[in-house]
Design goal:
By secondary structure, this protein is mostly helical. It has helices at about 5-15, 20-40, 55-75, 80-95, 100-125, 130-135, 135-160, 165-175, 180-190, 195-225, 230-260, 270-285, 290-300, 305-310, 325-340, 350-375, 380-390, 395-400, 400-405, 415-435, 455-465, 470-475, 485-490; strands at about 475, 480.
Length: about 500
Amino acid sequence: MNPVILSILNLFSGQTDLIELPKLGIKIISDKLIELQTSIGTLSDGNGPIAEAHVILLAAGVVIFLGVAGEAFFKKTGIPDVAFLMILGVIIGPVFGLIQPEAVIQVVPYFAALALIIIMFDGGLNLDIKHVIKTAHFSVTLAVLGFILSVVMITLAAHFALGWLWLESILLGSIVGGSSSAIVFGLVRNVKISEETKSMLSFESALTDILATIIAFILFEAVLAGHFDLQTLQETIGRAIVVGLVLGFGVGIPWMYVSTKLGNAQHAYMLTLGVLFVLFFLANSFGESGALTALVFGLMIGNKVHLAKILRFKLPRIELDDPTHNQLIFLVRSFFFVFVGLMASFGQIEYLIFGVLITVAVYYGRILVGKITLTKRFSLLDRAVTNSMIPRGLAAAVLATYPITMGLPNAEAYPQLIFFIILTSVIITTAGLAKSKKIPPPESVEGGFVKPDDDVTEDVIEVEKISDISLDDAVEGGFIRDKDEKSEKELN
């Protein structure tokens, strides 16, 4: 008979003390964990399955439950669910050893490719092309300056603190040089900042993901060859941009028209997904990682209502918030960040110290870049959120797996270092956003937590006096705008 049932029967008959039940429960749980661990056939020699089927399904169920709980917790507190998912990966991987990192590494490159294009496609779908154009110069400046500064700081630290060669140090800096679009896209939807700032941060994170991917793949080959060619870098970046734009626009615009003809057809989304996968294959065939192609393709599909007016064709009524797409994004993000936790290792304390300290340095570098880039048209809230937005995530985790599969020097160190950098950056971002929420919101400003600068507020008041424009019209989400050219002339 089951020992728990037997003990309960003995309890009622007076043969078992009530105090003994918790002890018995702990013993049973411990025994089951040991039994579960020994029953798993991991890939220690690279030839067996990752784990038994029922264990994989159990892990998948736990990931889904925690993903849903983490998402709900994020909406309540602003703490990204990424941290919970990564910690879950640590628990079922390094802590209990249910799934070994060697097994995960063989699966990650395939799942990473899927995650990258799906997340970039989702980013394009959720970008408003009008806001992107309006804030493109801010996004590009933030992306380029922030990426370069991060790469320089991480390169110097890796070379002098870890004793790595220059090429290896630059590669590490490139992998974690930019913020993660997978995290930023989710964060900005739940922060009450201006729409312009949301678009700016989303587009910036997408650009840095693309920069990191392109430059990292060039450096992979450079590390293998033992030398770096600047001309190759220029040619590769140029080719990747051309291929990404040509494929994204060239297929996105025709498919935008085709998808309107499909209307609400039962498998319309699946067909779009099929086109996306074919685009990824074509982009890779022509030397582009697929990230930029997926972003541009998503931008076309997500803005088809606006673009249809320009191209002059009618759109049927289509359900824009596709539940299938939302569920797919949820699954991809949840499982991939658990994979990141599975690859973590706590054997070398210097990697933990390095990851934490370099992320703190990147945060202060971000503040410097924000002061250089953002003008006084941005509210204090917009600036505070922008300065805090340094989460590293999907692109870094994806690229961290390639040194192992390619046999590069210090290959095992990349996933370990990047795990601590990702986790620390998420914590810093969360703390920064929480700090922003504590500042009182300005009156009559929709979508902002903090008052604009005094000089900007005075300008708004002056606009009210001169042109009788209400503050709600003059200020949208904390991003100060003049109502029209007439008001601007009167201001001057």
